[in-house]
Specification:
Elements lengths: L3 E2 H6 L6 H9 L3 E3 L2 E2 L6 E2 L6 E3 L2 E3 L6 E6 L21 H5 L3 E2 L8 E7 L2 H8 L7 E7 L5 H9 L13 E5 L4 E6 L6 H8 L4 E9 L2 E2 L9 E3 L2 H13 L1
Parallel strand pairs: 9-13
Antiparallel strand pairs: 1-4, 2-3, 2-5, 5-6, 7-9, 7-15, 8-9, 10-12, 10-13, 11-12, 13-14
The chain binds uracil.
Length: 241
């Protein structure tokens, strides 16, 4: 793996700017493999080095994986001339790394969004051939019923001739709220499927994507890095899908 500067590696975590890292190094608060880092411009192997700052381990994996609780009202895009995007919720250091959302949620959809700069993982998670489960909670006009459950399980055909893969519909309570599990991700798919059943969606929220579930402690608009276990689960999925 290519060597990277210490200030670049530590600032890529999004916790400090490069200037702050330089100051931390100057104050002797950064250890690389247990030894004080002396120069911020020193180059090290990101896949092998382990850092601590003030004695606390810092993970500088070569790629960054961020779980975001997407609020309503933001575009799932990296930039837009007129409207705010989910990238606006992240600090400058992460934006500069070139993170992008893995798949899109509609502007009014809330919930789990994974952002990364790992193009290979994103490609695999999004590939139509991979069939990664995505679970949504939908509120609908009317109530979904057993006929809707059977229709989605059989694979709906939408008005424009689009044939959907079989999907799992699970009514909750009186059926005005339901869970929908998709194995694909076509444009407005949940909304179009439920509209085709005469139950238009009034609110949509993504709960999970493959093994990754939205952290219930994350409020809308908040984000955190994936834990090593979550990353391992995603990579494990990569091996099997
Ligand atoms: N299906 C939709 O209709 N909208 C989303 O944002 C995601 C899935």
């Amino acid at each position: 793996m290519a060597l990277e500067r210490i200030d670049k590696l530590l600032s890529s975590t999004g916790r400090w700017s490069r200037k702050e890292v330089r100051e931390l190094v100057r104050q002797g608060r950064v250890l690389a493999d247990g030894r004080p880092a002396l120069r911020p411009e020193e180059k090290l192997d990101p896949s092998a080095v382990s850092f601590t700052v003030d004695g606390i381990p810092v993970d500088c994996a070569p790629f960054v994986y961020v779980m975001l609780h997407k609020p309503a009202g933001l575009l799932s895009a990296t930039e837009d001339r007129l409207q705010s995007t989910v990238l606006d919720l992240l600090p400058e250091e992460l934006r500069r790394r070139g993170l992008f959302p893995v798949g899109r949620l509609d502007k009014d959809t809330t919930g789990l969004l994974l952002l990364t700069d790992d193009g290979s993982l994103a490609h695999r998670l999004l590939s139509p051939k991979k069939h990664v489960d995505k679970v949504y909670r939908a509120e609908v006009e009317g109530r979904v019923d057993e006929e809707d459950v059977r229709a989605l399980a059989a694979g709906l055909e939408l008005g424009d001739g689009l044939r959907c893969l079989p999907a799992v519909l699970e009514p909750l309570g009186d059926g005005s709220v339901c869970l929908v599990t998709l194995r694909e991700g076509k444009y407005h798919q949940v909304k179009r499927m439920l509209a085709a059943r005469g139950k238009p969606v009034t609110a949509l929220h993504r709960l999970s994507m493959g093994p990754l579930a939205l952290d219930e402690g994350l409020k809308p608009g908040n984000w955190r890095f994936l834990t090593p276990q979550e990353r391992a689960e995603l990579w494990g999925l990569e091996q099997t899908i």
